[in-house]
Amino acid sequence: MTVLTRTRGLAVLVATVLVVSACGGSETPAAQGGQQGAKEFSVALTEPDHLTPGNTSSSYSITVLQALFDLPVVIDAKGQPQMRAAESVTSEDQKVWTIKIKPGQKFHNGEPVTAESFADAWNAAAYGPNAWTNNYYFENVEGYDALNPEAPEGSEEAPKPTVDKLSGLKVVDPNTLQVTLTAPFSQFPITLAYTGFAPMPKAAFADLAAYDVKPIGNGPFALDGEWVRNRQIKVKRFEGYTGPRPAKSDSINFKIYESRDTAYVDLRAGKVDLIQTIPPASVSEAKTLLGDRFVATPSGTMDYLGFPVYDKRFASADLRKAISMAIDRQAIVDAVFNGTFKPMSSLVAPLVPGYREGACGEACVYDVAKAKALFEAAGGFSGTMNLYFSNADPSYEQWMTAVANQLKDNLGIADIQFRKVPAADYLSTLRAHKQDGPYRNNWVMDYPSPQNYLQSMWGEGNRMGWESKKFNDLISQANSAAGMEASIPLYQQAEDVALREMPMAPLWNWQDQGGYSDRITGVQIDAYSPNLDLITVK
Amino acid sequence: MRYAIQRLAQAVPVFFATTFLIYAMVFALPGDPIVALAGDKPLPDEVLHTLRERYHLNDPLIVQYGLYMLNAVQGDLGQTFTGQPVSELLQGRWAVTAQLAVTAWIFELVVGIGLGVIAGLRRGGIADTAVLAGTTFVIAVPVFVVGYTAQILLGLNLSLFPTAGVDEGWPVSYLLPGMVLGSFGLAYVARLTRTSLIENIRADYVRTARAKGLRRRRVIGRHALRNSLIPVVTFLGVDFGNLMAGAVVTEGIFNLPGIGQQVFQSIQLQEGPVVVGIVTMLVMVFIVVNLLVDLLYGVLDPRIRRA
């Protein structure tokens, strides 16, 4: 035996290892599940935080919960409320609301869905010590303060509430729930389309921790087995479902991914059927690759540039408008977001009823000469301008850099510094008014009403430190208007006030890009729901 | 035996020092983890307050650490901010990372030593040049480039391996990520084996063995190679710990729900207890593997055992 054969032997061993491993891999595409009779499809998901509807506002959890729960109201593709678990939501004075529940609905464990199922769930969400994320949605229901007592002066510790039920919730009969608000609120019906208003069965309250990982809903799909953390959540068709949207497929497998890039590779490899967010860098490739199976959905999410109005250097509305006019929104959208976002000249997103294109007028139109003239007339800006954003996403720094360059070139502001704040600190910084320069502000829509944007972002206690009695008066008038139709002109007037004073400039509206495999049909993703019940497996 | 006990006793202070340091580092990260939980939405003050109390975030560092350790020695590693018990969380993840690390390690060991021997015996030849060039390349290219390229090329385009996930189980799902993770260490193993083999082949004892008329195969395998493996074993030992810890990028690319992904997430969420739990286990793995390496020296070279 010579050295030659010895090494040849080794080489053969190496080759065998490689070949064996390759063979093992090549069997896999054929071995994939989903095709053996059962009509199942898979959806790429990021690990949810909770599955109790009152305790999550993350879009990942909501994707799953929309399959598991029927909410009182849903929003159709046009942004209008439609009844789902509720039969009607009515009020004489916009303050006391009567919700009629459709009879005959069942939870996945067989319990009937009654007015009490809603009252129980809402009370639990509003109860301070439970510390559920959607607690503040019940702020305007009478009795909220008693469930969330404030800490006394000089103490950190809040006393334990003496009651655990909202006095504003009254179960009149099994199918009627009466809700009394602290002030008239014309938008109330549309808010009921938010996940936090889902009903919960009696069985949930025996062990809330167990319910959080194995929720029992009233929707077309029921949980199938355990939520396998970081791997998958399986749901199957609920046979007892009597509502308006029975499931068209047998089951859905929510496959959990850490990275969108990997999910996208898996979509291409045919290992996952639907992904709702294609990574920005792959969008143009996905368009060609998927053709009709590429889905672009305008979303309700908006980016804004906020100004610290409380800082005297930013006290002039003309200076703030000049900055807004010096920003070339289209150029930034093209460069940073592949042209997929929409430059905005309005404070609310286009899909919101009451949206007016160009509401902002020339203050949101890119015009260097006018911007410069206005800027000079307002006294200009001296010293260092700090731009604030968080490190949550690399694109924030990219577009802020573009804004900085435009302010330098167009207004001659020479000294611009970036203040990149850790994501975990960003909101506290804004809340405490620690920012002394323009900053990234963002709003993710909860329900399509101008009120959701205007009151949350420009209303009392806003991040800009902006105060306008006129604006606040218009908002409360709109809130007490006789219905949603009547409220819209008033919200628009309030929007005009906010645009005239420009404490925060609109930048652009987001768009979501998804795609699906050729195994499924009937995909109808809109800004409110992926509508998974409509999907059929070929 | 005494040697082994001594080594284990050293592990105790190492254990406390490391865990405290890690806890302090996570504690020192800027930002409020509870506020961050809600993303861009505001959390009501009452909710913030209740959650901070629940996770002892208002207490000083030393109290937090003390409470953590007190519970930990009783087997309770606490909860994540989403209410999942940490021990339950880690259970499933360890298995994934261990399978990945073992796959990578076997790949390093078999292919690395193999290539090293081939290169060493044919010093200056085509095989040697190829191994040198290949290993230089692998060391120079960042692991995520290797990872994504392998995923697209071998997983997606050629369909030789699954692209991501652990659905096919071990070994199928772990082969590609294992090779990617192991490629870096493999380059070192191959080079170490090669260099050390070349040195030993020229050594007096090998010449003596050959002069005694032993067959070349026995001379290389039994004498030269065995001695040459000491530095390689040292490297492989240390590297096993590195593989466990270095899985962050690979697990991310291939969507393997292991420890690496968890550490990354938990640091971002500032979940001190989770990070400490994982790092403590990693420290233990390092200690145990290094102990095994030291014991192995004795097997490979009896002189070390007697010294």
TrEMBL record, chain A:
Pfam families from the UniProt entry: SBP_bac_5
Key words, A-Z: Signal
Signal peptide: 1-22
Domain Solute-binding protein family residue range list: 81-462
PANTHER family with a match to the protein in the record: ABC TRANSPORTER SUBSTRATE-BINDING PROTEIN, PERIPLASMIC BINDING COMPONENT OF ABC TRANSPORTER
Name of the protein this chain belongs to: Peptide/nickel transport system substrate-binding protein/oligopeptide transport system substrate-binding protein
TrEMBL record, chain B:
Transmembrane segments: 12-31, 94-118, 130-154, 174-192, 224-254, 274-300
Membrane topology category: Multi-pass membrane protein
InterPro entries named in the record: BPD_transp_1_N, MetI-like, MetI-like_sf
Keywords: Cell membrane, Membrane, Transmembrane, Transmembrane helix, Transport
SUPFAM superfamilies: MetI-like (SSF161098)
Cited Pfam families: BPD_transp_1, BPD_transp_1_N
Oxidoreductase recorded as keyword: no
Subcellular location: Cell membrane
Keyword Mitochondrion: no
Domain ABC transmembrane type-1 per the UniProt entry, residue ranges: 94-297
Major place of residence: membrane
Gene3D superfamilies per the UniProt record, alphabetical: MetI-like
Family the entry assigns: Belongs to the binding-protein-dependent transport system permease family.
Protein name: Peptide/nickel transport system permease protein/oligopeptide transport system permease protein
Species for this entry: Streptosporangium lutulentum
